[in-house]
Amino acid sequence: MRKGELSAIIDLNEDDAALAPLTTGRPIGTLPFAGRYRLIDFPLSAISAADIHSVAIFMPRSARSVQDHLRSGATWNLDLIQGGVFMFPYVATRDYNDASLRARYYEDYMQFLRMSGSRYTVILGAKNIANIDLNAVLDYHRAGDSPITAIYKTLPVTELGAQELTLSLSELGTASSVLPLSARHLGDAAKVAAFMDGYLIDTPMLIELLDAASNGASFRRMPELLRDAVLANNANAFEYTGFLARVTGIQQYFAANLAMLDDASYQALLYSSIPILTKSKNEIPTFFARDSHVVNTILGTGAYIEGSITHSVISRNVLVHRDAEVVDSVIMQGTKLSIGASVRNAILDKGVVIGPNVTVAGTPEHPVVVPKNATVYQSIEEVPA
Amino acid sequence: MTTEMLGMILAGGQGTRLGKLTRTTAKPSVPFGGRYRIIDFTLSNLSNSGVNTVGVITQYQPLELNRHVQNGASWGLNERSAGVTILQPYAASDGEKFFEGTAHAIFQNMAYIDSYNPKYLLVLSGDHIYKMDYRRMLAFHESKKAALTVAVMPVSKSEASRFGIMNTDDTDRIIEFEEKPAAPKSNNASMGIYIFNWATLRKYLADSNATDGNLEDFGHDVIPAYLAHNEPTYAYAFHGYWKDVGTIQSLWEANMEFLSPNNPLNITNRNWRIYSQAEALPPMMLTSTAKVTRAMIVDGSYVAGTVDHSILSQSVKIGPGSVVTDSMVMPNAVIGKNVRIDHAIIGEDAIVGDNGEVVGTADDIAVVGYGEAIGRKEKA
Q: Which molecular function term from Gene Ontology is one that the record holds (chain A) (predicted)?
């Protein structure tokens, strides 16, 4: 294996209950985004841009969509003869009360880390949509005193839910703990250091942590071990200042997509020095018919538009027939809107069919979600509370 | 190693009739239809026809073409011990191997062909827009026990004098070949697609090289020689969309035809996809001032102006107040504010400054070359 400075771990086992039904058959990591991407493209693109050669992906329960998207990893320059993508399957039957089986959980990580030969390891999740320069994080880490660095962004307190994790920053700029917002004594602070589920840690130390945990009396998962490590060592706190969208629920997911219609956000996230790479599909160009009317919208390829679309995000292969209308909505791949259909404030998952003259309308706070492959022949209207 | 049918794409021509568009690149790598390059059609046809071993013969300005084709993976042409090989002229102990013509280019790459020892050699051009199943043509070739099969396409009588015309008997056997005849006897135009029995062709080319070396070009030399020696030579009639995009006018027309949802090329058919090498670009954005009708647009494009009956390729920017009609804009072109573009082809990386005008007519298409910048104009 080619020895790189950095290796990376992406854990796709993220709590996705708040995103049902979008996450019924997929993890947060493969949620479609901006008509073009899957959320996992963001950590993988950051990894690719930092020239990281060894990446471990810890697969979620529903791994099919992840496998299908990643394939050999070639999209992110990870189809290497040395290193590459290492996928670790989800083991549903593993009994973590059994010490010998528990040890295997840690052994997966340790095997990968030892083989990678890396000096540092980056650990990322997929639910924070951002464009992180990992080389800058590495420089910051090397300049800091602590063997672990946590990544955060300063956000208004009002943007965070009670259970979301934050960093307690000391006056020296280090993080002394990772705590849910509800456990913090905020006083009258208007802003808070929102933790972005991202660490950079000395690989030998991470191996030690895992080794110790594997001999421990109780089962502790990786995120808990890392939070303990912050508590024990006072992490270097790296402040990220770029575009960030946190996909913690349906409303946030909806808003994150529509945020891409704002030119500044679109440019900041998608046109920075780190190109966002995604699996390329050989779709034909998107066709706009004679009577189409499309404004303030981003679209993938392969779509065929006869109707009107305003302020929406349209994925590839979407069909919008004549007299159909889409406003303030997120439409995923392969969805069809029949003649005269009307969709407002809605998220239509992949392969949805909206019947002729059917209305689907939510509110900005409560977008209607139509699950994957559903056919809708009766209007759905969310009445504003 | 034996391959039943080996594909050879002749992609070395200069394409002088494309003027500014091929000054720094080979014709097969000229962008087409928004997200393709011309050679994608031939490469995809090969892949879809199960011809998995392909040589691409290059000579003129091959850089962009090499970058595009790479290892053929984008077309699924990267199987082990098969795949795409780029063949460039090289110096050898018996002299430099620059190509003097289509047949000569095949002769110069005999070592490559022999290494696969194919039964049949499929010779193709890299500059045609069409979808064709070469397996059907091979079945025809085998059923006729032919030494050479030439794919032909019916063209109108008025056009026939621009093509090589194959006159056949009732069994489709070619009895006469006329190159660009003033008074054509039939309308079977050669499409520049040939299936040869390699052993026979090899002998002809080797003999020619050992004697007078006069077999340089397939149309001009080899087909007449086959006919003169009474080799079984047949015409395979192709019925479908086929367009030679060798001139500015035909390139523009093919793009405009491509734009029609009723185009017989049937680009939406997912069972015969046209593949291309594509970089991952952000989704296209149409701003609040965009007005887009009868248009094709692809990833990375940013439209704030009006686009009607036109094709925009990857990462094209159209500023507010600009109007693009009946035109084809190639990748990475930047169109400023209040620009008027009509009946035009805008080359890759070209820039048209604010208030600029690029206006042609249906018979005289305006062209902005690769990387060319048309200056900003002050409003009169």
A: glucose-1-phosphate adenylyltransferase activity
CB contact under 8 A, B282 and A266: yes
As a whole number, mean pLDDT of residues A74-84 equals 90
Distance, CA of A233 to CA of A140 (rounded, Å): 16
Helix (H, G, I), strand (E, B) or coil at A25: coil
Q: CB distance B294–A284 less than 8 Å?
A: no
| CB-CB under 8 Å, A294 with B290 | yes
Question: CB–CB of B283 and A300 under 8 A?
Answer: yes
Reported as type and span, the H/E element at residue A148 is strand A148-156
Residues of B in Cβ contact (< 8 Å) with A280: 278-280
The answer to whether the Cβ–Cβ distance between A285 and B298 falls below 8 Å is yes
**Fold of the CATH domain B5-259:** Spore Coat Polysaccharide Biosynthesis Protein SpsA; Chain A (3.90.550)
Q: Tens of pLDDT along B273-322?
A: 999 988 889 999 999 999 999 999 999 999 999 999 999 999 999 999 99
Residue A276 covered by a domain: no
Contacts of A260 in chain B (CB under 8 A): 283
Closest listed residue to residue B40, CA positions, set B375, B290, B341, B278? B278
Is the per-residue pLDDT at A307 higher than 90? yes
Closest CA to B45 of B242, B178, B311: B242
Residue where a domain terminates, one of A240, A271, A302: A271
How far is the C-alpha of A111 from the C-alpha of A54, rounded, in Å?
Answer: 12
Residue pair B219/B164 in contact (Cβ under 8 Å)? The answer is: yes
B157 among annotated binding-site residues = no
Q: Are residues A363 and A257 in the same domain?
A: no
Same-domain check for residues A223 and A328? no
For A160-219, the pLDDT digits (tens) are: 999 999 999 998 889 999 999 999 888 888 999 999 999 999 999 999 999 999 998 888
Could you tell me if A333 lies within 8 Å of chain B, comparing CB atoms?
no
- Domain(s) of CATH 2.160.10.10: residues in chain B: 285-374
DSSP helix/strand/coil, A2: coil
Contact residues, chain A, for B70 at CB < 8 Å? none
Residues from chain B that touch A293, judged by Cβ atoms under 8 A, are 291
Pairs from A179-187 (Cβ < 8 Å, separation ≥ 24): A181/A157, A186/A157
Alpha-carbon distance A282 to nearest alpha carbon in chain B (angstroms): 6
Residue A327 lies in domain: 287-381
My answer on whether A154 and A80 are in the same domain is: yes
Give me the residues of A, 45-84, that contact B with CB < 8 A: 74-75
* Residues A251 and A303 both lie in one domain: no
Residue B327 counted as an annotated binding residue: no
Is B356 among the annotated ligand-binding positions?
Answer: no
Domain-terminating residue out of A245, A271, A297: A271
Q: Cβ distance A314 to B306 under 8 Å?
A: no
Chain B within 8 Å of A189 (Cβ-Cβ)? no
- Does residue B379 or residue B119 have the better pLDDT? B119
How many domains is chain A partitioned into structurally?
2
Complex ipTM over 0.90 = yes
Sign of CA dihedral B46, B48, B51, B55: positive
B380, pLDDT greater than 70: no
Does residue A325 sit in the same domain as residue A215? Answer: no
- Give yes or no for a contact between A286 and B298, defined as CB atoms under 8 angstroms apart: yes
Class of domain B285-374: mainly beta
A268 touches chain B (CB under 8 A): no
